[in-house]
Target: Class I SAM-dependent methyltransferase
Amino acid sequence: MVSEALDIDNMPRGGPDASWLDRRLQTDRLEYLDRDDSDDRKRRVIRALDRGEKRLGQHDLMAGIVLDELRGVPDPRILELGAGHGGLSRAILALHQSARVTVTDIDATSVADIAAGDLGSHPRATVREMDATEIDSPDRSYDLVVFAQSFHHLPPRPAARVFAEGTRVADKLLIIDLPRLPPWRHIVQSPLLLPLALMFPVVHDGYISALRAYSPSALRTLARYADPAIRVEVRRSAFNLRGRWELAVASR
Ligand SMILES: C[S@@+](CC[C@H](N)C(=O)[O-])C[C@H]1O[C@@H](n2cnc3c(N)ncnc32)[C@H](O)[C@@H]1O
Model:
Protein backbone atom coordinates (compact mmCIF):
# COMPACT_ATOMS: atom_id res chain seq x y z
CA MET A 1 0.00 0.00 0.00
CA VAL A 2 1.36 3.41 -0.99
CA SER A 3 0.06 5.04 2.18
CA GLU A 4 2.07 2.64 4.37
CA ALA A 5 5.34 2.78 2.44
CA LEU A 6 5.48 6.45 1.54
CA ASP A 7 6.75 9.27 3.76
CA ILE A 8 4.12 11.61 2.35
CA ASP A 9 5.23 14.72 4.27
CA ASN A 10 8.69 14.50 2.77
CA MET A 11 7.71 13.49 -0.74
CA PRO A 12 9.68 15.68 -3.17
CA ARG A 13 7.65 17.97 -5.44
CA GLY A 14 9.20 16.04 -8.32
CA GLY A 15 7.70 12.81 -6.96
CA PRO A 16 9.24 9.81 -5.20
CA ASP A 17 11.49 9.16 -8.20
CA ALA A 18 12.80 12.74 -8.49
CA SER A 19 16.48 13.18 -9.33
CA TRP A 20 19.05 14.48 -6.83
CA LEU A 21 19.05 17.89 -8.56
CA ASP A 22 15.28 18.12 -8.84
CA ARG A 23 14.97 17.47 -5.07
CA ARG A 24 17.14 20.53 -4.43
CA LEU A 25 15.09 22.77 -6.70
CA GLN A 26 12.14 23.15 -4.36
CA THR A 27 11.35 25.39 -1.41
CA ASP A 28 9.24 25.62 1.74
CA ARG A 29 9.29 29.41 1.49
CA LEU A 30 5.78 30.84 1.48
CA GLU A 31 4.30 32.97 -1.26
CA TYR A 32 2.76 36.29 -0.22
CA LEU A 33 -0.58 34.63 -0.99
CA ASP A 34 0.08 32.09 1.78
CA ARG A 35 1.08 34.66 4.41
CA ASP A 36 -1.10 36.44 6.92
CA ASP A 37 1.18 39.41 7.40
CA SER A 38 0.42 41.44 4.28
CA ASP A 39 -3.09 41.79 2.92
CA ASP A 40 -1.91 44.59 0.67
CA ARG A 41 0.72 42.44 -1.09
CA LYS A 42 -1.77 39.56 -1.37
CA ARG A 43 -4.28 41.82 -3.09
CA ARG A 44 -1.60 43.14 -5.44
CA VAL A 45 -0.67 39.58 -6.44
CA ILE A 46 -4.31 38.60 -7.03
CA ARG A 47 -4.96 41.75 -9.08
CA ALA A 48 -1.78 41.24 -11.12
CA LEU A 49 -2.74 37.59 -11.80
CA ASP A 50 -6.21 38.63 -12.93
CA ARG A 51 -4.84 41.36 -15.23
CA GLY A 52 -2.17 39.09 -16.72
CA GLU A 53 -4.56 36.18 -17.29
CA LYS A 54 -7.12 38.55 -18.86
CA ARG A 55 -4.53 40.04 -21.22
CA LEU A 56 -3.36 36.60 -22.32
CA GLY A 57 -6.90 35.24 -22.64
CA GLN A 58 -6.06 32.57 -20.06
CA HIS A 59 -9.43 32.74 -18.29
CA ASP A 60 -11.11 31.72 -21.54
CA LEU A 61 -8.47 29.07 -22.26
CA MET A 62 -8.96 27.49 -18.83
CA ALA A 63 -12.76 27.77 -19.11
CA GLY A 64 -12.51 25.85 -22.40
CA ILE A 65 -10.52 23.10 -20.62
CA VAL A 66 -13.19 22.92 -17.89
CA LEU A 67 -16.09 22.75 -20.35
CA ASP A 68 -14.31 20.09 -22.46
CA GLU A 69 -14.39 17.88 -19.36
CA LEU A 70 -18.15 18.44 -19.08
CA ARG A 71 -19.19 17.49 -22.61
CA GLY A 72 -22.53 15.70 -22.50
CA VAL A 73 -23.50 17.22 -19.12
CA PRO A 74 -26.47 19.53 -19.96
CA ASP A 75 -26.61 21.95 -16.98
CA PRO A 76 -23.31 21.43 -15.21
CA ARG A 77 -22.82 22.26 -11.54
CA ILE A 78 -19.25 23.43 -11.07
CA LEU A 79 -17.28 24.22 -7.91
CA GLU A 80 -14.24 26.45 -8.31
CA LEU A 81 -11.75 26.21 -5.44
CA GLY A 82 -8.98 28.78 -4.95
CA ALA A 83 -10.74 31.20 -7.31
CA GLY A 84 -8.63 34.19 -6.17
CA HIS A 85 -10.30 36.84 -8.35
CA GLY A 86 -13.08 34.81 -9.97
CA GLY A 87 -11.87 35.31 -13.57
CA LEU A 88 -12.18 31.62 -14.46
CA SER A 89 -15.72 31.32 -13.07
CA ARG A 90 -16.75 34.48 -14.93
CA ALA A 91 -15.40 33.03 -18.20
CA ILE A 92 -17.21 29.70 -17.61
CA LEU A 93 -20.52 31.50 -17.02
CA ALA A 94 -20.03 33.56 -20.20
CA LEU A 95 -19.17 30.52 -22.33
CA HIS A 96 -21.91 28.20 -21.03
CA GLN A 97 -25.45 29.52 -20.85
CA SER A 98 -26.79 27.09 -18.21
CA ALA A 99 -23.73 26.24 -16.09
CA ARG A 100 -24.01 27.05 -12.35
CA VAL A 101 -20.80 27.90 -10.56
CA THR A 102 -19.93 28.00 -6.87
CA VAL A 103 -16.96 30.37 -6.65
CA THR A 104 -14.78 29.84 -3.57
CA ASP A 105 -11.45 30.61 -1.97
CA ILE A 106 -9.94 30.05 1.46
CA ASP A 107 -9.01 33.72 1.74
CA ALA A 108 -11.81 35.81 3.26
CA THR A 109 -10.63 39.07 1.64
CA SER A 110 -10.59 37.54 -1.85
CA VAL A 111 -14.05 36.07 -1.28
CA ALA A 112 -15.37 39.45 -0.10
CA ASP A 113 -13.84 41.17 -3.15
CA ILE A 114 -15.39 38.59 -5.53
CA ALA A 115 -18.77 38.88 -3.79
CA ALA A 116 -18.67 42.66 -4.10
CA GLY A 117 -18.24 42.42 -7.88
CA ASP A 118 -20.49 41.16 -10.71
CA LEU A 119 -20.26 37.51 -9.61
CA GLY A 120 -21.84 38.42 -6.28
CA SER A 121 -25.14 39.15 -8.02
CA HIS A 122 -24.87 36.75 -10.97
CA PRO A 123 -28.00 34.54 -11.05
CA ARG A 124 -25.96 31.38 -11.76
CA ALA A 125 -23.12 32.04 -9.31
CA THR A 126 -22.74 31.50 -5.57
CA VAL A 127 -19.73 33.00 -3.82
CA ARG A 128 -18.44 31.33 -0.64
CA GLU A 129 -15.39 30.85 1.53
CA MET A 130 -14.10 27.28 1.31
CA ASP A 131 -11.00 25.25 2.11
CA ALA A 132 -10.04 22.89 -0.72
CA THR A 133 -8.83 20.32 1.82
CA GLU A 134 -12.13 20.26 3.70
CA ILE A 135 -14.92 20.92 1.22
CA ASP A 136 -18.08 21.89 2.99
CA SER A 137 -20.54 20.13 0.62
CA PRO A 138 -22.31 16.75 0.57
CA ASP A 139 -21.06 13.87 -1.58
CA ARG A 140 -21.72 14.22 -5.34
CA SER A 141 -23.04 17.80 -5.12
CA TYR A 142 -21.18 18.85 -8.29
CA ASP A 143 -20.41 17.52 -11.73
CA LEU A 144 -16.91 18.98 -11.61
CA VAL A 145 -14.55 20.64 -9.16
CA VAL A 146 -11.77 22.80 -10.61
CA PHE A 147 -8.69 24.02 -8.71
CA ALA A 148 -6.67 26.30 -11.00
CA GLN A 149 -3.07 27.43 -10.46
CA SER A 150 -3.41 26.79 -6.74
CA PHE A 151 -2.61 23.13 -6.01
CA HIS A 152 1.12 23.82 -5.62
CA HIS A 153 0.31 26.05 -2.61
CA LEU A 154 -0.37 22.92 -0.58
CA PRO A 155 2.26 20.63 0.97
CA PRO A 156 1.85 16.94 0.05
CA ARG A 157 -0.46 15.80 2.88
CA PRO A 158 -3.12 18.53 2.40
CA ALA A 159 -2.64 18.26 -1.38
CA ALA A 160 -3.65 14.59 -1.14
CA ARG A 161 -6.75 15.70 0.82
CA VAL A 162 -7.80 17.77 -2.21
CA PHE A 163 -7.85 14.56 -4.30
CA ALA A 164 -9.96 12.83 -1.63
CA GLU A 165 -12.36 15.75 -1.15
CA GLY A 166 -12.66 16.76 -4.81
CA THR A 167 -13.56 13.22 -5.90
CA ARG A 168 -15.99 12.91 -2.98
CA VAL A 169 -18.09 15.98 -3.77
CA ALA A 170 -17.96 15.73 -7.58
CA ASP A 171 -17.89 13.22 -10.40
CA LYS A 172 -14.62 14.77 -11.60
CA LEU A 173 -11.83 16.77 -10.04
CA LEU A 174 -9.80 18.88 -12.48
CA ILE A 175 -6.50 20.31 -11.27
CA ILE A 176 -4.97 22.89 -13.59
CA ASP A 177 -1.51 23.87 -12.43
CA LEU A 178 1.92 25.02 -13.48
CA PRO A 179 4.02 22.24 -14.95
CA ARG A 180 7.14 21.31 -13.00
CA LEU A 181 10.09 22.64 -14.98
CA PRO A 182 13.13 20.53 -15.77
CA PRO A 183 16.12 21.49 -13.53
CA TRP A 184 18.00 23.24 -16.36
CA ARG A 185 15.11 25.70 -16.82
CA HIS A 186 15.23 26.68 -13.13
CA ILE A 187 18.99 27.15 -13.33
CA VAL A 188 18.79 29.29 -16.49
CA GLN A 189 15.88 31.47 -15.38
CA SER A 190 16.83 32.03 -11.72
CA PRO A 191 19.41 34.81 -12.33
CA LEU A 192 16.86 36.62 -14.52
CA LEU A 193 13.89 36.25 -12.17
CA LEU A 194 15.48 36.74 -8.74
CA PRO A 195 16.08 40.52 -9.06
CA LEU A 196 12.53 40.99 -10.38
CA ALA A 197 11.16 38.83 -7.54
CA LEU A 198 12.61 41.32 -5.05
CA MET A 199 10.73 44.17 -6.77
CA PHE A 200 7.40 42.69 -7.84
CA PRO A 201 5.23 40.57 -5.49
CA VAL A 202 3.68 38.66 -8.42
CA VAL A 203 7.13 37.60 -9.70
CA HIS A 204 8.12 36.65 -6.13
CA ASP A 205 5.09 34.36 -5.91
CA GLY A 206 5.56 33.03 -9.46
CA TYR A 207 9.19 32.14 -8.73
CA ILE A 208 8.22 30.21 -5.58
CA SER A 209 5.28 28.58 -7.41
CA ALA A 210 7.63 27.16 -10.05
CA LEU A 211 9.76 25.58 -7.30
CA ARG A 212 6.66 24.11 -5.61
CA ALA A 213 4.94 22.75 -8.72
CA TYR A 214 4.25 19.00 -8.58
CA SER A 215 5.45 16.66 -11.33
CA PRO A 216 3.11 14.14 -13.03
CA SER A 217 4.60 11.37 -10.89
CA ALA A 218 3.97 13.40 -7.71
CA LEU A 219 0.36 14.07 -8.77
CA ARG A 220 -0.26 10.35 -9.40
CA THR A 221 1.36 9.47 -6.06
CA LEU A 222 -0.78 12.00 -4.16
CA ALA A 223 -3.98 10.66 -5.74
CA ARG A 224 -3.00 7.08 -4.89
CA TYR A 225 -2.08 8.10 -1.35
CA ALA A 226 -5.47 9.79 -0.93
CA ASP A 227 -7.28 6.64 -2.00
CA PRO A 228 -6.11 3.83 -4.27
CA ALA A 229 -9.66 3.79 -5.71
CA ILE A 230 -9.09 7.22 -7.29
CA ARG A 231 -8.31 7.08 -11.00
CA VAL A 232 -6.19 9.95 -12.28
CA GLU A 233 -5.08 10.99 -15.72
CA VAL A 234 -2.23 13.51 -15.89
CA ARG A 235 -1.57 15.33 -19.15
CA ARG A 236 -0.49 18.67 -20.57
CA SER A 237 -3.09 21.05 -21.97
CA ALA A 238 -2.93 21.53 -25.76
CA PHE A 239 0.01 23.59 -27.02
CA ASN A 240 -0.89 27.28 -26.91
CA LEU A 241 1.45 30.25 -26.76
CA ARG A 242 -0.98 32.03 -24.40
CA GLY A 243 -0.61 29.36 -21.70
CA ARG A 244 0.01 25.68 -21.15
CA TRP A 245 -0.68 23.78 -17.95
CA GLU A 246 -0.34 20.41 -16.26
CA LEU A 247 -3.79 18.87 -15.92
CA ALA A 248 -4.84 16.14 -13.51
CA VAL A 249 -8.34 14.73 -14.00
CA ALA A 250 -9.41 12.49 -11.14
CA SER A 251 -12.53 10.47 -10.40
CA ARG A 252 -13.65 7.39 -8.48
C1 LIG B 1 -2.13 31.68 -7.37
S1 LIG B 1 -3.74 31.96 -6.74
C2 LIG B 1 -4.71 31.38 -8.09
C3 LIG B 1 -5.94 32.20 -8.28
C4 LIG B 1 -6.75 31.83 -9.53
N1 LIG B 1 -7.28 30.48 -9.41
C5 LIG B 1 -5.91 31.94 -10.77
O1 LIG B 1 -5.80 30.97 -11.52
O2 LIG B 1 -5.36 33.04 -11.00
C6 LIG B 1 -3.93 30.70 -5.53
C7 LIG B 1 -5.21 30.78 -4.77
O3 LIG B 1 -5.37 29.59 -3.99
C8 LIG B 1 -5.97 29.93 -2.77
N2 LIG B 1 -5.74 28.84 -1.80
C9 LIG B 1 -4.59 28.52 -1.17
N3 LIG B 1 -4.81 27.47 -0.33
C10 LIG B 1 -6.10 27.13 -0.47
C11 LIG B 1 -6.95 26.15 0.14
N4 LIG B 1 -6.48 25.28 1.06
N5 LIG B 1 -8.25 26.11 -0.22
C12 LIG B 1 -8.74 26.97 -1.13
N6 LIG B 1 -8.01 27.92 -1.73
C13 LIG B 1 -6.70 28.01 -1.41
C14 LIG B 1 -5.31 31.25 -2.41
O4 LIG B 1 -6.06 31.97 -1.44
C15 LIG B 1 -5.27 31.93 -3.79
O5 LIG B 1 -6.41 32.70 -4.03
